[in-house]
Amino acid sequence: MQLTAQEISLYLNGTLEGNPQTIIQRPARIEEAQTGDICFLANPKYHSFAYTTQASVLLVSKDFKPEKPLNPTLIRVDDVYSCVSLLLEKFGQPVPQTSGLDAQAFAHSSVQMDNNVSVGAFSYISEDVKIGRDTVIYPQVFIGKNVTIGRGVVLHPGVRIYRDCVIGDGCIVHANAVIGSDGFGFAPQGDGTYKKIPQIGNVVLGKYVEVGSNTVIDRATMGSTHIKDGAKLDNLIQIAHNVEVGENTAIAAQAGVAGSTKIGKNCLIGGQVGFVGHITVADGTKVQAQSGVSRSLTQPGAAWHGSPAFKYSDFMRSQVVFKNLPDLAKKVHELEKALAILKKGE
Given 156, 226, 241, 305, which residue is catalytic? Predict the structure, then answer.
């Protein structure tokens, strides 16, 4: 994509200082930018780079006052970070595939596709699948029987969606994610073996859910594993059968949620957090990275840390004590010696 500085300034509702016809090809970090790049300055720690950057355009706040001459064309805006988000969205729009079914893709004759659906090479769409308009299916995607896919969905290469699952409008599923694999259900037998428990439910993704690469969401034993509207799942997450993730909850990479746990809405879950099964987590809960949640968290909006997790404020106070344990142990030892001497003198 190529845009002029003037086009970008108008798009961001900014004020231009410099050459309006400067051509921009991509955004870049201020310390690495080259000719044809646009970068931004919002953090005072990076002010020095404003005078050395090779970028063609620099995005700054309206109150920025340069201390010496600048080479880039400037675009001044009210909120730099918000404008960066808009800019990245603009440049990050995927190149659209040609609408229709690629000659090297397969779709069963019973498949129902709405207008402007794109299916890439080597993708396979099974019986009785329904696909909403403006959906993009990249190459090598597998869609099982009786799957329903909403409008404006993007399925990146290698995505696997098992039978009967539902993908809501506007969802994005990244490469090699698996939606609807069997839940981990096995009945121990008397001889030490296991009998597989059939997993006959499905997975339902609400609207505008985003699922990261290599994340796996297991189908329910019965009913649905449900990821609700606006939830965001990072890469390499395991969501077990019959789990519920609430609206607009965000879960970072390598987290794991065991079966039948219900996580509320607007929660923030750090990386490598583990949840045991059959618990509930209140709305607005925050769990710090690498914590282990072994019981229900019932207080809305509370922050937790540790394994097993306890309140974040208590955890931080405990850390202060923990760091001082060697000195405390030494003082206790000295007090014990002094006490022993006093006892001898009685």
Answer: 241
